[in-house]
Amino acid sequence: MSEGYHIVVCAGVVPDPWQTLDPVPGPQGPTIKNEMMLPHVLDPWAAHALYEGARLAEQAPGSRLWLASIGPRAKLQQVMMTVAQKVRFELAAMDGPASGFTDADQTAAALAEMIRGLQGLDLSRLLLFGGWESASRGAGITLQLVGERLGIRDQFQGVDALEVLPDGSFQILERVEGGKHQASVCAGPPAVLGWATGNLPEPKNNPQLGMQNMRTILPALQRAKRFAPQPDGLRHLEAKVPSQLRETRVVKNSSPEEIAKELADWILA
After folding, report:
1. 266 alpha carbon, distance to own chain's centre
2. Residues paired with residue 126 on neighbouring β-strands, in sequence order
3. Is residue 96 part of a domain?
4. Over 70: is that where the pLDDT of 236 sits?
5. How confident is the model at residue 150 (pLDDT cuts 50, 70, 90)?
6. Residue 36: φ, ψ to 5°
7. What is the mean pLDDT of residues 154-172?
8. Which pLDDT score, from 0 to 100, does residue 129 have?
9. What is the pLDDT of residue 7?
10. Which of 46, 75, 98, 117 shows the smallest number of beta carbons within 10 Å?
11. Of 16-20, 110-114, 116-120, the least confident
12. Structural domain of 21
């Protein structure tokens, strides 16, 4: 594609998964205990989408890459200090909750409006990237709803690879059951791709790139509008961490065959 692509990656910030995440009741529903005190990271699923989008933008001259995110302004700034050193992008941000309990439809509406307002965006060249799943907004439908609101009907989920063919079309590999992939061909943008793990490693930190990115990221954070989702009548009766079940016995003088049989019987039961 001679004109390049306009790639928008929808990515939220989430508490570092290595931290203890305890759901607790809040004034507007469940929330994470001491969430604003926890270190945050870019959603791991969406991070893959960002790296894949950056590579595609490098391969197609004239492309532009945006990262669209909704989250607490302070946490966005904290995370962007690191992410800005990975790849070159433009930030579009809204100051709002990053909780996984936020209504997916309202989130999608806010993201779609923000994307439509991106300066210089050509919707006919748009590739909307995001995580197939999410460590926060794991409803599994947010990215699809954003695509629908933008009028994009070609949508692919669980994407592991995207290859640009000589005629400008895409070959896309989507995960299916049995460890296999479904190969699809898309004529070109606009399209929505929900990425799984992709094929790229995490880029190394580049402090010079980070300083260049921060020149546009900080003004974007200062301009970030407030996103305040409205109560929709949904009530969460309970939210808790799954309980662990541990059954341990100390047994001596058992043969490997006996141990293996007992384990197999326990699993089958």
Report:
1. 37
2. 6
3. yes
4. no
5. very high
6. -75, -10
7. 91
8. 94
9. 94
10. 117
11. 16-20
12. 6-226
Residue 1: band (very low, low, confident or very high) from pLDDT cuts 50, 70, 90: very low
Task: Note if the bond before 219 is cis, omega within 30 degrees.
Answer: no
- Which tokens is 26 given? 């809040």
Write the CB contacts of 226 (distance below 8 Å, at least 6 apart in sequence): 94, 95, 96
What is the rounded CA–CA span in Å between residue 269 and residue 258?
A: 16
Between CA 115 and CA 123, with CA 119 as vertex, the angle to 5 degrees is 55
Q: How many domains does the chain have?
A: 1
Position 239 pLDDT exceeds 70: no
Q: Is the dihedral of CA 19, 129, 104, 97 positive or negative?
A: positive
Q: Give the percent of the chain with pLDDT over 70.
A: 83
CATH number for the domain spanning 217: value is: 3.40.50.620
Does some domain include residue 163? yes
Tens-digit pLDDT profile for residues 114-145: 999 999 999 999 999 988 877 665 556 888 88
